[in-house]
Amino acid sequence: MSRGAAAHGTSSTQDQGWAWMVLLATVLLQGLTLSFPSCTGVFFTDLQREFQATNSETSWFPSIMTAVLHAGGPLCSVLVERFGCRFTVMLGGLLSGVGMVASSFSKSISQLYITAGFITGLGSCFGFQAGVTVLGYYFVRRRALANALASTGASIGLTLWPLISQYLLDEMGWRNTFLIFGGVLLNACVCGAVMRPIQLGPPSSPLQPSPGQEPGNSAEDAQLSNGATPHQVEPPQQVRFAACKRTLQKYLAFDIFCKNKGYQIYTIGVAWMVMGFVLPLIYLVPYAVRNGVEERKAALLISIIGFINIFMRPMAGLLSGLSIFTGKRIYLFSLAALLNGLSNLICVISADFSILILYCLIYSISMSGIGALIFQVLMDVVEMDRFSSALGLFTILESITILLGPPLAGLLVDITGQFSYVFYASSFFMVSAALFMGLSFCALDRKNKLKEALKPTSNSPSRYQYTEVPTNPEPEKQAPPAVMYITSI
Hints:
Layout: H1 3-7, H2 18-32, H3 44-51, H4 55-71, H5 73-83, H6 85-103, H7 109-138, H8 143-185, H9 188-194, H10 240-252, H11 254-259, H12 261-277, H13 279-290, H14 295-320, H15 329-347, H16 353-381, H17 387-416, H18 420-454
Helix pairs in contact: 2-7, 2-8, 2-9, 4-7, 4-17, 5-6, 5-7, 5-17, 6-7, 6-8, 6-9, 7-8, 8-14, 8-16, 12-15, 12-17, 12-18, 13-14, 13-18, 14-16, 15-16, 15-18, 17-18
C-alpha cells in the first residue's frame, strides 16, 4: 500500500473487493443477533404457562436479552480494541450458541434470565456491535449504503425468526426449539472469520514509536483497521488510578457526552425512545392471541413487519445518503420515530387481523427509517475514530430503558388486564422522544448557524460533528495521526 494512501487512512480493499464479503457477513450476522429477540414473543404464552409466571415476570426474559445486547457495548469496545473485530464476533457467536443450548435445560424462569437472557444477549452484543464497527473501516465513500444494506439482515431475521419459531414450537416444543437455535447461532463464528483485518497506516518508525508501544516491536507497529490496537504498556503504580479513569472515559465516551451537544441530545432522545420502541415486538403476538387471532397468524404479523423492512431499509438508507440530507438526517430520524409512535394508536382501535396488518404496514415503514438511520446519525455526530467508544455509552444508556420498559408494561397489563395500554405507552415514549430530538437539534442548528456567521472561516466537516480539543501534548492521542476519518457522507 502506498504511503499516500495511508496518509489519508485508506486501503485498496475499502469500498470494493473483500469489503463486499464483509458486508454479506454483516448482513447474516445482524439477522442472527439483532433480530433474534423478536421471536421471543412467540414463546411468551408457553413460557408463562410452563413456569406459572405473570406477564411482568415473563417479560424480563426478552427484556434482559435485549438490554444486555445493548449494554455490553463498553466491554465489546474493550475486546475490539484489544483483539479486533474478528475475534470479538467469533466469541459472541460461541456465547450465543452456548446460552441457548443451556436455556433448553432451564428448570425455572430465573434460570432462563441467566442463560437465554444474559449469556445469549451478551454474545449477540459482541457479534452485532463488532460487526457494525468493522463496516466503518471497510467502507468510507459508500458507508451510508453499506449500513443500509447491513440493516436488511435484521429485517430478514425479523421475517424468518417468528415463522421458524412458531413452526418448531408446534412440532417439538420450546425446549427443543431453543436447542436448535443454539446450533443456528453458532454460525455467527463463520461470519466473524470473514472479517479479516486490513492495514490502513504505514509501520511506525523505530525512532518514533507510537504512544503505548515498545520501541522495536515491529509486529505491533501497524494500526489495524478492524479496531485492534497494540498492547498497552503497564502504567506505573502511582498513576494507575488516573490511567484507569482515562480508560473508563475512553470506552464510555463521557468526554464526548459532556462536550458534544449533538451526541448528548441524540443519546438521551434515543434512550427515552427505545423504552417504547421494543414493546410492540414483544407484546404484539400475545395481544393478538388474547383477542382471538390464531397463533400462526399472530406470528405472521411480526414476519410482515420484517418482510417490509427488507425493501424499505435500503430505500431509507439511499434516501438519507443524498447530499441534500447531509447534516439533516436527524430530522428524518425524528420524523420516523414520530410516525412509529402514532402508528401504535392504530393497533388499539381494533384487534381484528386486517386492522393489525394495516398497523404492521405503517409500523414497519417507520421502523425501516429508524433502523437505517440510527447508527448513521451517530456516525454523523461523532468522529469515526471515536465511534466504538461513543457506541459503547450510547448503547449502555439504551439498555437501561430497554431493561425497564417491557417489565413495566407487563406490570401494567397485570394491573389492568388489557394489552392495549402497552401500545398507548409505546406511543407516548416514541412521540415525546421524536419531538425532543427534532426541536433540540433545530435549536442547536440555529445556534451553530449563528456561530458560523460570526466565524465564517470554520472548516468543520460536519454540522454536529464532535471536535476533540487536546489538553495534553500530541503523544496522548489514542491512534497514529495517519488514521483519520470523515464521517459526513
